[in-house]
Write a structure and sequence with these properties.
Layout: E1 4-5, E2 9-13, H1 19-26, H2 32-35, H3 43-51, H4 57-60, E3 63-69, E4 75-85, E5 90-97, H5 107-122, E6 127-133, H6 137-145, E7 149-160, E8 163-173
Parallel strand pairs: 5-6
Antiparallel strand pairs: 1-2, 2-3, 3-4, 4-5, 6-8, 7-8
Helix pairs in contact: 1-3
């Protein structure tokens, strides 16, 4: 896969060296509600996942990339295409920036721009969708910046801290 490069960041394939970073992200309970995780992952399982991460998106139905600053190999976030459906030319898209000090600096915006362009230009997708908590104002602002529109709200969809929250479905259709 070609590295996707922007002004501040680049997206690259996951490497075995990303084990501790992916382990930290997957086991960060603060992010579980956005990643739909319910139990911790072991290093063993993540090592197995990384060993199979070289699978083609057509095989795995998913593409997970590390978000890195241009001057560093170390990952600061992850961005995914998931539920890849080549017949209907669509996929889900999600992003997480691990540390709060790397957020609100245009990193997520640049990563999302790069992956949207890749999805529409290289994979020839017709549409992308994102599931976003209606309380996650930053993510809603990020995705709507690129033209994603809320096409529906799933009421009481996600249980967090003994209460239920709504989740919006945001969709971007490629205008070719």
């Amino acid at each position: 896969m070609v590295t996707l490069k922007g002004d501040k960041i680049y997206l690259r394939a996951l490497e075995p060296e990303d084990l501790e970073f992916v382990y930290a992200v997957e086991n960060d309970e603060a992010i579980w509600e956005v990643s739909n995780t319910q139990t911790p992952y072991s290093r063993f399982l993540i090592r197995q996942y990384l060993e199979n991460a070289q699978q083609d998106i057509y095989e795995a139905k998913q593409l997970r990339l590390a978000i890195c600053k241009n001057d560093d190999f170390k990952a600061i976030g992850l961005i995914d295409l998931f539920d890849f459906d080549p017949k209907n030319r669509r996929a889900g898209i999600g992003i997480v920036i691990k540390n709060t000090e790397d957020r609100s600096k245009g990193v997520g915006k640049e990563a999302l721009r790069l992956l949207i362009a890749f999805a529409f230009e290289q994979l020839q997708l017709h549409q992308l969708y994102a599931n976003i908590s209606q309380e996650n104002v930053a993510s809603i602002q990020l995705f709507t910046t690129f033209g994603f529109q809320c096409i529906g709200v799933k009421k009481d969809w996600v249980r967090t801290q003994n209460r239920f929250t709504d989740e919006g479905v945001y969709q971007l259709i490629h205008q070719s």
